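Hi R.,

Here's the chain you asked about this morning:
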Amino acid sequence: MMPLPQLWAASFFIIVFLGLDSEFVYLEGLVMSLYMYPSFFFTGHRRKLLLFVICAVSSLTGLCMITEEGLYVFQLFDYYACNGIPLMIFAILESVCMGWVYGADCYYNNAEDMIGYFPVSYMKYCWMFITPCVSAVEHIALLFGLIHPYALGLFLAFSSVVVAPLWFLYSLAVTPGTLRQVLRISHIPHTLGYLACFISQ
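And the predicted structure, written out as tokens:
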């Protein structure tokens, strides 16, 4: 018998319900994507039949992954259907659709409507040229083995994190005064904000 059986029972109960909740969301998202044909799928019992077919196919696919060789099937699905090449293709298509089909100028105006001011115009060039080109180069490099996926993952992880220290160094460079004064000035608003949040609670 495992120690603390109540803890394990509650943990497994929560994990099962988290899985069911995610499954409902994914299933409804898939079914709602078929709203292109509402006259066919959403008349009579066809919606229930569609849900049953999707659940049955998903269950059979999942059963293939719990056999002795199921780990290899899972890795095939994980690499070829969920990660790597499909994500790169979707990144290229999304950036092309946003920058060229919908239009970078329209999206730029939408951003101004949402945040109240225009972002830097550099963003338009990112949407139109830089993001599709970088994604295409990464896709080609992964496809032909010119770059290791682990190295690409590290690069992507650091590219999203490096903005904070770069902004800190930039603020140190442009703020006048000694290092101690600059550090004190740059931390006063954050400290006051934390104190205000703490007092309001």
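The chain has ten helices and no strands.

Let me know if you need anything else.
M.
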